[in-house]
Amino acid sequence: xxxxxxxxxxxxxxxxxxxxxxxxxxxxxxxxxxxxxxxxxxxxxxxxxxxxxxxxxxxxxxxxxxxxxxxxxxxxxxxxxxxxxxxxxxxxxxxxxxxxxxxxxxxxxxxxxxxxxxxxxxxxxxxxxxxxxxxxxxxxxxxxxxxxxxxxxxxxxxxxxxxxxxxxxxxxxxxxxxxxxxxxxxxxxxxxxxxxxxxxxxxxxxxxxxxxxxxxxxxxxxxxxxxxxxxxxxxxxxxxxxxxxxxxxxxxxxxxxxxxxxxxxxxxxxxxxxxxxxxxxxxxxxxxxxxxxxxxxxxxxxxxxxxxxxxxxxxxxxxxxxxxxxxxxxxxxxxxxxxxxxxxxxxxxxxxxxxxxxxxxxxxxxxxxxxxxxxxxxxxxxxxxxxxxxxxxxxxxxxx
Length: 400
Description:
Elements: E1 11-18, E2 27-35, E3 41-48, H1 58-61, H2 65-68, H3 74-85, E4 89-92, H4 95-108, E5 112-114, E6 119-120, H5 121-125, H6 129-136, H7 146-157, E7 172-174, H8 199-205, H9 214-226, H10 234-246, H11 251-270, E8 275-276, H12 277-289, H13 295-301, E9 305-306, E10 317-321, H14 334-343, E11 347-348, E12 359-362, H15 370-378, E13 382-384, H16 385-399
Parallel strand pairs: 1-4, 4-6, 8-9, 10-11, 10-12, 12-13
Antiparallel strand pairs: 1-2, 2-3, 5-7
């Protein structure tokens, strides 16, 4: 049966990975899956995109600067992408976001894109993409990759028939200052980073936003991005407020959503029966960023906080894992950590073994890296970089 009822000639499922969620942010990867009026997938197309700026939260989309250094710019792919979007009814999981980012990109080229009126599977199913796919029995690997997300959204979209609606309207794209260029660079052609997501990003992946619908669900979906660095700057707060207005939320509704978002993070942190001290600190930072009293975190967590003291004394063997940063978020080179260890009378080791290492220093003590898993299995204590630097100063004074 024809699913379009004479509106356009196809559906196009689109997904973009971006440097962020704001109008100033850029696309770093785009994928489209074309679906025929009868619901059959007939074409797939995807490419990495050089955003001509910092790539943003690599821990979420897994795209690094080196991966996009040889990728086409949006100007290079604009015409080829427009051929797929123009005249199609758009489908996306959080359609307003994906459409807005593409509208902005075509606007930068002096062109234009009218997104039309398509189908938002986030609003339609009322769940985050992974949750919705799991609920519908759809296999879904590699989230936050444009083609994987688009494929999953296409399968989700086909789970329920589209009811006849006069509101469906195809997209219209005017390319602007760009000529057709068939060049693409698919993710499979570039080496992906192996560093895992930091704790908060993993925690956000475990939240569900049950009971939230419509504009509220769209807003919470964006918060996962905004809070990836645990900070909402004044500029981000202003843009987040603008996003809330765009989706029709009042200040009171936004405040309620912030409380719910924090509560979901707390629940996710408590699922393993214990909240580590560093996890508590992260939850409190999130509460401050969301303007929710930090007392709410303490009240919800109660006596579940575990403080696991780690002692460091001269002569101990220490191993490192993860990309370390200081309290301001600036990177700390591994060579610097090794130097600190040596100055404190410690013995840095490259490999973690049961009898060859006394303490593991992790950028994220909740890490699930191979070294961290071995440390837990062997009963080797794990401490944060911040704690290591403090304890090393104490050990250095002991060795003098």
